[in-house]
Each structure stands twice: as structure tokens, then as C-alpha cells.
Fold:
Amino acid sequence: MTTNLVHIYWYLSRAAGFAAFGLLWLSMVYGLLITNRMARMWPGGPTAFDLHQFTSLLALVFTGFHMLVLLGDSYLSYSLVQLLVPFGSTNYEPVWVGLGQIGFYVMALVSITFYLRNRMKPGAWRVVHYLSFGSFVMALGHGLLSGSDTGAWWASGLYWLAGMSTLFLTVYRILVRNVALPPAKQAQAIARS
Structure:
């Protein structure tokens, strides 16, 4: 029983990390559904937007817990600075943990735009929101390359499903957006994407 208590922080961090990744993935899916109008079919535009915003913010909460719960882990002995400063981890996979830390900060920046959208120029808002793709890729890389469960079938299945579905919806968004436009506007849309 004592052994389980020693590892409880590690287990909590792993569980929170998977929950955060799953929520980030759902946020990406809902965001892509909104932008290519698939959300009109299901679950509906306003509902998809609310789910997009909610899953994004909840992903931030779970990611914060994923990081901060490691303060209790006596095996890795992380300090608050190591958890908050990108690439400050010297205890475990510093590059891939640092990638996850940067992904968290990018995710936070993108999530703030939910509240600043009315104060931002549409082009600036769009550019900041495009950073969510980088955040997703960093989270995926962090999970794949520093996750202790990556070798498990269910973990690799989650990463494959999330990565491939996000890639599919992104390509679909680009194709649908550009096919519906006249040829002159297609070049402009491709340049902006």
C-alpha cells in the first residue's frame, strides 16, 4: 500500500494528461467543425461553439493539474520552476516535457482569445487561433515522446485517432473552403490558410 501512495502523484498526472489531451483534441474537432460548417449538421453551430470553448478551457484546467500534481511526486522531485519554465525539467525528458510546457502556454494564449475576440481585429484573432494547431502538435509530441504509457495499445490508439482525425478535418476544411470559391479568390484563401 505504501508503494501505491508513493506513485499516486504520477498516476494522477498521467490520468490528467490523457484527460487534457482528449479535451484539447475535442476542442480542435469542434473548432474545425465550426469553420467548415459541418457543425450545422451536428450538433448545431451555437452548441459546437460552446463545446469548443468549454473543452478548450477544461483542457487548460486538466493540463495545469497534470503539471502541478507532480510537485507531490517524491521520485521526480520537480520544483515549481521546473514545472513552469519550458525546458527547465532536468529530471525527466527535458526536451519533450519542454515541448508540452510551450504547448500549454500557447493553448492558454489561444483560449484567452475567446474573451478578447470582440476587441481584436479579425485577422489578429485568426492568426492567434491558428496557433492552436501548434499547441495540438506539441501536446501530441509531448505525449508520444515523454508519455510513459505511449507503448500501450490504448494510448497509441488515442494518439493515432486524435492525430489522424484532426489532420482529416484540417484538410477537409482547406479543400471545402477553396472549392466553394471562384478561382481568383482560391489563391487568396490558400495564401491566408
